[in-house]
């Protein structure tokens, strides 16, 4: 039971409305190295064994951006086909996206367009970065040009979770992009959601005419 409560609390997405909290999601095919990149950034470690992510893992991180403490939740999902396409709540309130492919497997690069289309369906405006992972296995690949990133004007990072190349830079840039998106968000969907929330609040007030206005919008006091 306590476990259930913790889970609900962890997945409570209202916290992402607070100024100091951002949500960054990770997308890409299975085995491109999404989880290993997270582990490299957060634990500065790399265990080569393959343990495919089951559905969803949340990684928590605290960062300092322009002197301000920011709580970052990284959402890491399974790239396996049996989990595609993802539930809308994975994208809900995300402030940035890290999209990964494996430089050794062309199909994972080709599939970026499918991941990107789904991302844009739910989050039309959030910053997205493209990540070419596993460059330790083929350093020549950094000389290649990858049109996908250019076509959509997305930043491209050549990284390696195995030896750590560019991993810290990638994640720090993604955090900065998420924070700046949050501060300047013009996202149409965000505005629609805000409008809907205000509308619901107004409706509630109309439905409860006997109560004092202040008591209607207060949160329940902690017990
Ligand atoms: N050589 C090399 N291997 C890597 C690198 N990053 C990940 N791998 C290997 O690739 C495999 C898959 O890595 P994961 O991080 O589990 O991949 P994932 O994208 O999280 O996969 P799913 O959870 O199934 O979606 C593992 O065997 C890792 O050891 C890298 O930078 N270089
Ligand atoms: Mg994984």
The CATH homologous superfamily is termed P-loop containing nucleotide triphosphate hydrolases
By CATH, the architecture is named 3-Layer(aba) Sandwich
Q: Please compute the radius of gyration using only Cα atoms.
A: 20 Å
Supply the number of structural domains: 1
**Coarse shape:** globular
Structural class, by secondary structure, is alpha/beta
In spatial order, strands of the major sheet run 2-3-1-4-5-6
Protein name: Rab-like protein 2B isoform X1
Pfam families: Ras (PF00071)
Keywords: GTP-binding, Nucleotide-binding
Organism: Dipodomys ordii (Ord's kangaroo rat)
Task: Describe the secondary structure blueprint for this structure.
Blueprint: H1 2-10, E1 21-27, H2 34-43, E2 56-65, E3 68-77, H3 88-91, E4 96-102, H4 106-110, H5 112-122, E5 128-133, H6 147-151, E6 156-158, H7 167-184, H8 188-207, H9 213-216
Parallel strand pairs: 1-3, 1-4, 4-5, 5-6
Antiparallel strand pairs: 2-3
Bound molecules: guanosine-5'-triphosphate (GTP) and magnesium ion.
Magnesium ion binds next to helix 2.
Key features of this structure:
single chain; 223 residues; alpha/beta; Rossmann fold; 6-stranded mixed sheet; 9 helices; 39% helix; globular; disordered N terminus; disordered C terminus; binds guanosine-5'-triphosphate; binds magnesium ion; RabL2; GTP binding; GTPase activity
Describe the model.
This protein has 223 residues and is of the alpha/beta class. The protein has one domain: Rossmann fold. Helix content is 39%, strand content 19%. It has a six-stranded mixed sheet with strand order 2-3-1-4-5-6. Strand 5, helix 6 and strand 6 (156-158) form a beta-alpha-beta unit. Residues 34-35, 52-53, 76 line the site of magnesium ion.
């Amino acid at each position: 039971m306590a476990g259930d409560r913790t889970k609900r609390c962890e997945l409570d997405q209202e916290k992402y409305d607070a100024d100091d909290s951002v949500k960054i999601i990770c997308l890409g095919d299975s085995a491109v190295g999404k989880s290993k990149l997270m582990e490299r950034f957060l634990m500065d470690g790399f265990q080569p064994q393959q343990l495919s992510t089951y559905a969803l893992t949340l990684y928590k991180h605290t960062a300092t951006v322009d002197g301000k403490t920011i709580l970052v939740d990284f959402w890491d999902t399974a790239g396996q086909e049996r989990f595609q396409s993802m539930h809308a709540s994975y994208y809900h309130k995300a402030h940035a996206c890290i999209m990964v492919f494996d430089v050794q497997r062309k199909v994972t690069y080709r599939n970026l367009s499918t991941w990107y289309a789904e991302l844009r369906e739910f989050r039309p405006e959030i910053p997205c970065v493209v990540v070419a992972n596993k460059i330790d296995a083929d350093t020549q690949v950094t000389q290649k040009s990858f049109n996908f990133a250019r076509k959509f004007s997305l930043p491209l990072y050549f990284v390696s979770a195995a030896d750590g190349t560019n991993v810290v830079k990638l994640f720090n840039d993604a955090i900065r992009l998420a924070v700046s998106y949050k501060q300047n968000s013009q996202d149409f969907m965000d505005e629609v959601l805000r409008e809907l929330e205000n509308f619901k609040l107004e409706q509630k007030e109309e439905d409860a005419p006997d109560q004092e206005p202040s008591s209607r919008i207060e949160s329940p006091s902690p017990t």
